[in-house]
């Protein structure tokens, strides 16, 4: 799915749930190690200051913005994982650059290299070429 | 794709879709404001599960799409300067300016970095005291608290080589602008769930009342979107125009108070130009006077940059929901994700890119006639 013909690097309005594994008091900021289904990121917890280890929060660009319950969080994580959204949101800098480099090339403008389509099928891209 | 089939055939999705069909007696136009929701609707074929008369109109809620070309050119001019480390989210890298994009600036020797969080850019400034580190702070209310904190921390720590190029945009003024436009025919709105997780939804009841439109706070998952549409249709059929929260597990009426507090401390409301739409009064945030020293537009000499948009591109009409992407004469021809004329084709959240990438080249009738669409 990486560099799969779409320009997907980081969906700027997507926020995903993660579990706080550890809270680190780093001087003037409340920083947590937050686990997103196995991928752990450093996240600023200043906007949810009462959060505790083991609790879940919705995280956007490295900031927890809202707490939510464990069951809901795990369900949402599963949905986003299936939709391929976790890898987009949590990509490393190298992965993100690789996608930015590769994605336009695989989006061939005349449709001859195929356009990934999950709702209408590859044939639609092909038939569009004919029209 | 397996997941799509699982979702569409799922018991709950089927049930909600049936309820929407059962409730609908006439045509309705519902706008989802958020680009992430547009992406999810098209990717999951949610629009194809709705009754023929219920039309999803894609709104201006993609932060990349609405960033004016002029600001992209300013970003490129800063990023190309020697001694600058230019930090951005990945979304912005392939957004074309007048003659290049950030990725090409990097290829030509510019120090362009993709960061996960704006705080990573602050760290880079500390580690590189001889460089100017600039963060490209684009986004809606969801992203603004992160950018506000980066500037706040930089000021508190006395970091002098960090600045942000800010172009924050706000959802409620955009909804009002769309509803105030002549000839607008949007009947209801799905409000963006994650924007509301920060801001709450206390700003919406006056809009719903004044324009007599239901506004339903909605999440991003396919079932959330279906449920948001269901609630909007039920209100419309009952002649109601209330604000409803279909994303209660994340969103409260008041929103995130600590975030709103810092936002009001760091930013001030300003008129903002939206790409393809034009200036919407009081529709953005900029750094206020206390934080102006961290504003890259003041720190770098870029005020002379003025850019016009491509005349072929109809992204403004797409962003306002006046036309669907495929109705633009340039769609799929002069304008593709590889050679985008407007930002709606560039960003993964852009309506044009979503249509192109998910095979919506043809009208629904043509697709049905060609027998290509299974439901």
Structural description of this entry:
The complex is a heterodimer of chains A (131) and B (375). Chain A has 131 residues and is α+β, with helices and mostly antiparallel strands. Chain A has one domain: Roll (SH3 type barrels), CATH 2.30.30.140. Chain A is built from 4 helices and 5 strands. Chain A has helices spanning 70-82, 85-89, 93-106, 122-130, and strands spanning 16-26, 29-36, 39-44, 56-60, 63-68. Chain A has a 5-stranded antiparallel beta sheet. In chain A, a hairpin with a 2-residue loop joins β4 and β5. The model of chain A is unreliable at 1-11 and 104-131 (pLDDT under 50). With 375 residues, chain B is an alpha/beta fold. Chain B has a single domain, classed as Rossmann fold, CATH 3.40.50. Chain B is built from 18 helices and 11 strands. Chain B has helices at residues 2-9, 11-23, 35-43, 63-66, 69-79, 102-107, 118-127, 144-156, 171-180, 193-199, 205-211, 222-237, 257-266, 296-299, 315-319, 343-346, 351-357, 364-370, and strands at 28-34, 54-61, 84-88, 111-114, 132-139, 162-169, 188-192, 215-218, 243-245, 267-274, 278-287. In chain B, α12 (222-237) links the parallel β8 and β9 (243-245). Chain B starts with a helix and ends in a 5-residue tail after the last helix. At the A-B interface, β3, β5, α1, α3 and α4 of A face α1, α3, α7, α8 and α10 of B.
């Amino acid at each position: 799915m990486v560099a799969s013909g779409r320009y997907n690097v980081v969906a700027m309005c997507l926020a995903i749930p993660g579990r706080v594994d550890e809270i680190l008091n780093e001087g003037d900021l409340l920083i947590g190690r937050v686990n997103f289904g196995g991928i752990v990121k450093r996240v600023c917890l200043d906007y949810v200051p009462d959060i505790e280890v083991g609790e879940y929060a919705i995280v956007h660009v490295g900031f927890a913005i809202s707490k939510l319950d464990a069951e809901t969080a795990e369900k949402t994580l599963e949905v986003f994982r299936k939709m391929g959204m976790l890898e987009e949101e949590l990509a490393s800098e190298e992965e993100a650059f690789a996608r930015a480099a590769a994605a336009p090339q695989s989006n061939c403008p005349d449709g001859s290299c195929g356009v990934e389509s999950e709702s209408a099928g590859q044939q639609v891209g092909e038939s569009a070429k004919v029209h | 794709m397996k997941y799509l089939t699982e979702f569409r055939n799922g018991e709950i999705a089927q049930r909600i879709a049936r309820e929407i069909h059962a409730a609908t007696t006439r045509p309705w136009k519902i706008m989802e404001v958020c680009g992430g929701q547009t992406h999810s609707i098209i990717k999951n074929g949610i629009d194809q599960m709705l009754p023929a008369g219920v039309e999803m109109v894609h709104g201006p809620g993609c932060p990349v799409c609405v960033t004016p070309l002029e600001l992209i050119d300013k970003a490129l001019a800063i990023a190309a300067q020697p001694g600058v480390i230019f930090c951005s989210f990945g979304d912005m890298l392939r957004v074309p300016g007048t003659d290049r994009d950030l990725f090409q600036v990097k290829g030509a020797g510019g120090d362009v970095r993709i960061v996960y969080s704006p705080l990573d850019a602050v760290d880079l400034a500390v580690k590189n005291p001889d460089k100017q580190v600039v963060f490209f702070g684009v986004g809606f209310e969801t992203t603004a608290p992160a950018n506000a904190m980066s500037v706040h921390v930089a000021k508190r720590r006395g970091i002098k080589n960090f600045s942000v190029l800010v172009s924050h945009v706000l959802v409620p003024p955009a909804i009002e602008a769309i509803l105030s436009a002549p000839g607008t025919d949007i009947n209801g709105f799905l409000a963006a769930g994650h924007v509301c997780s920060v801001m709450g939804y206390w700003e919406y009841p006056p809009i719903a009342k004044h324009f007599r439109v239901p506004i339903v706070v909605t999440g991003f998952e396919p079932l959330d979107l279906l449920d948001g549409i269901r609630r909007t249709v039920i209100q419309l059929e009952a002649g109601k125009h209330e604000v409803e929260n279909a994303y209660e597990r994340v969103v409260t009426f008041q929103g995130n108070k600590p975030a709103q507090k810092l936002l009001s401390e760091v930013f001030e409301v300003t008129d903002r130009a939206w790409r393809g739409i034009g200036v919407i009064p009081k529709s953005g945030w900029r750094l206020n006077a206390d934080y102006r020293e961290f504003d890259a537009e003041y720190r770098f000499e870029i005020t002379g940059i003025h850019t016009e948009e491509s005349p072929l591109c109809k992204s403004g009409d797409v962003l306002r929901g006046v036309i669907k992407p495929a109705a633009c004469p340039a769609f799929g021809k002069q304008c593709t994700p590889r050679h985008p004329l407007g930002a709606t084709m560039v960003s993964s959240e852009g309506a044009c890119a979503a249509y192109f990438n998910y095979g919506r080249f043809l009208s629904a009738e043509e697709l049905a006639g060609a027998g290509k669409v299974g439901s």
